[in-house]
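Run log // design_07
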């Protein structure tokens, strides 16, 4: 009946892996399944524990590195939080200077500064986020201006 316990352990480890997604608990779940097979064929409990340990280590050392490389290569990197805003466009709500201003970025109002000193980006213009500096978006105009022109109306 120990094999049923090993199956339960494998299921719990698989559920933990779904939450963590690091492929460590999945390797231990594989070890628990191997121990369940050993228990089902009548191996004593000490042998089941040895099978669990050996199979888990083999999976961790032999399979996990390959599985991680494959998993990371197939899942695209997704920018989140502040990094997700870099490169996005925003609409100027209050004129943006090198010191102050407001933009609407991804449905939220952000304080903003111009990436170009001396430039004033007028309300209503569309800008691109260059970086996020603290709680302020540093922005630049979408189109590069001609030499000698300003952004003021």
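design_07 sequence
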């Amino acid at each position: 009946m120990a094999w049923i316990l090993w199956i339960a352990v494998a299921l719990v480890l698989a559920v933990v892996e779904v939450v963590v997604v690091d492929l460590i608990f999945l390797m231990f779940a594989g070890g628990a399944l191997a121990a369940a097979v050993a228990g089902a064929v009548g191996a004593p409990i000490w042998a089941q524990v040895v099978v669990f340990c050996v199979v888990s280590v083999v999976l961790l050392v032999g399979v996990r590195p390959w599985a991680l490389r494959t998993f990371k290569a197939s899942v695209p990197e997704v920018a989140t939080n502040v990094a997700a805003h870099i490169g996005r466009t925003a609409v100027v709500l209050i004129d943006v200077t090198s010191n102050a201003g407001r933009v609407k970025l991804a449905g939220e109002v952000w304080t903003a500064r111009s990436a170009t000193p001396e430039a004033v980006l007028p309300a209503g213009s569309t800008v691109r986020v260059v970086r996020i500096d603290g709680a302020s978006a540093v922005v630049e105009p979408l189109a590069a201006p001609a030499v000698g022109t300003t952004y003021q109306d």
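The first strand starts at residue 89 and ends at 94.
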